[in-house]
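Running this now, will post back.
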Amino acid sequence: MIEPDELSEFDSTQVTNITQADVKTVRAEQVHMYQADAENIVAQEVELKQSAAGNVKANHIHMHQSAIAVANATEIAVSQGAVGFVRAEKMSAGGFTGAVLAGSAELRHGVANVVVGREVHVEGARTGILFARNISGNVNTVLDARGALIVGLISGLFASLMMLLTRSLFRRE
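Update: finished.
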């Protein structure tokens, strides 16, 4: 019997079920993980329950009470989970999301630091910075497009003043 510590890489062309194990790389059509972790996952469909993954590339990702550092997918659904960076065509999230780059994003009862998308629907969620062509729902954001423009202008002005001050103070003669 293979102990979980001995698993370093697992390749399959069908369905891979991983329970209470540490895996370095998983490549399969379907990956189902329960209380497990993987560094890299490449699959058509990924389902995580109480699991963690470093980098996931898949067409469809469904996760519940799980964490992913970087997710690249056509469609991702997050329930009570955390994702560091998401790049997807369609995303639905309830939990914590660091940065989202999506065509269509739906945030429900969670927190997202940065959201960029064509269409964003927010319900009971908070965002730090939100850029979208179409926004719907009750949006509670710290910084919108107008606020980001003001912060950018002020930051640029401050940086240029600091550069001029530094040059004048440390000028060599």
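The first helix runs from residue 145 to 169. More later if anyone needs it.
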